[in-house]
């Protein structure tokens, strides 16, 4: 769409909104044994999966605003080294870093959601459109698709990202599934996610408490999530920078020091769009 808005961090293309030092912090982080990572390629069900995990951990009392959500399920590449330090535990770290560009652990747990690349491309286009300044005139879908196929988008080529995780899909600490699976049978996959997080504490607890299980399913509905994530990017940056001192992340200060460019962008989608299968 607008390759001028991309930067390279140690060979990885990311949006220039991110700060290199925070991306490198995610790359170099040594996972703790109790860490949970959502490792999905962008626009493949990342936010939905994060929100499901938050709901499981909180018994259906997930954050009701994007700031609290980011504190409980931090976007590591964006928030930097303090994200796992300040994150309430249990919690989940989200980073779309390719498998080869992160430190992997056999004890930490990983959730990877794949998606039909056609639907992924459509969703990614609408998301990036909303982050493309109006000074960029060529914002056609055709132009974006060429960049997507060539891997000239944030986090690179879809298949290069997918294949290494697919090869680890049978690992006992990896839960690999598709967006289509989650959409068609949400209940079953919420239970499988809960089992990965802790079979006795979460999975069996949901099976034994139908009201709790239903509360979590209701909380993770598309309509409810739209209300939570109805916020511009620069809006939640400001909110994170103004947190009380006990919650504030020092690694976010780089956005205050370097500033966040606020300019008029094309109309796109937010973090939650249609949530459909076959939208392409």
TrEMBL record:
One of its GO terms (molecular function) is sulfotransferase activity. This is Putative sulfotransferase fat body overexpressed. Pfam families: Sulfotransfer_1 (PF00685). Residues 33-227 form the Sulfotransferase domain. Signal peptide: none annotated. Keywords: Transferase. Belongs to the sulfotransferase 1 family.
